[in-house]
Amino acid sequence: MAERIQKLLAAAGIASRREVERMIEAGRVSVNGNVASLGDKAEPTDSVRLDGKLVRLNRRPEIKHRVLAYHKPEGEVCTRSDPEGRPTVFDRVPRLRSGRWIAVGRLDINTSGLILLTTDGELAKRLMHPSHELEREYAVRVLGEVSDAMLLQLRQGVELEDGVARFTGIRDAGGQGANHWYHVILNEGRNREVRRLWESQGVRVSRLSRVRYGPITLRRGLKPGEWDELMRADMDRLRQSVGLPLLETLAAEEKSTRRRPKRSRKKPVGARQSVYKKRQ
């Protein structure tokens, strides 16, 4: 039977009904090729898309495997609570009935961009572990003259106070005058590493924003303070990047475990009797 679109998308684990309503109002949801409006209904067999991506209405991710892609604005901190009363990245995300959101890595208060938040502790642990060497890509605006020799040095490595660091990739992103934009890639997440690397070359970072974490890119058009909930395909790509099973495989394994009968530790009566007879 046809149901309101926000109810179907909420049941599919995309977001809360209120957040889905905002998505509909923003024109991000379509049904059978037509942009949806609040109050529209759909059936589970209809083609419902969010930002052009097909939503599988009959699948609902487990609550413990939720992931948000949050656009952190400057001025917010990544701690759960701040003694100085400053806003945190946890203030705007949806509240959970059980469990809690875990921030994957941190961005300092003057850095904006992508922060992943998840309810999956194992996923968060792997995403932050240095052994997986997940790429972090940043858009950075630097103030000062940048030479080819400086760029070469930043690629080869610079000795910082906590060891050698380098950019695994640098791409010129344009700009005019003294300010120039670059996209840089790191395979680790040390404190203020992007800023410290540029400062080692005598230039200053005037703007910094993370645009990608592993396979997840900050969606163009997602405003600071807003978030997207990852759909199954993106969640699976994220899980694969750190060696975790796909959600469908994980659900099948958990279902099999729940159905597996428990073995009794007691020996059968017949077995005890046979041992008794042998001893006699």
Précis, in short:
By secondary structure, the chain is α+β, with helices and mostly antiparallel strands. The protein is 26% helix and 26% strand. Strands 7, 8, 9, 10, 13, 14, 15, 16 and 17 form a nine-stranded mixed beta sheet that branches.
Kindly state the percentage of residues in helix: 25-40%
Sketch the major β-sheet: 9 strands, mixed
- What would CATH call the class of the largest domain? Alpha Beta
Give the quaternary arrangement of the chains.
single chain
Q: How far apart are the termini?
A: 72 Å
The H-level CATH homologous superfamily of the largest domain, spelled out, is Pseudouridine synthase
Number of separate structural domains: 3
CATH topology of the largest domain: Pseudouridine synthase
Beta-strand percentage range: 25-35%
Backbone shape: globular
Radius of gyration: 25 Å
How does the helix and strand content classify structurally? alpha+beta
Low-confidence stretches: 271-280
Number of strands: 17
* Overall CATH architecture of the largest domain: 2-Layer Sandwich
Order of helices and strands: EHHEEEEEEEEHEHEEEEHEEEHHH
Q: What's the pLDDT, averaged over the residues?
A: 85
Number of helices: 8
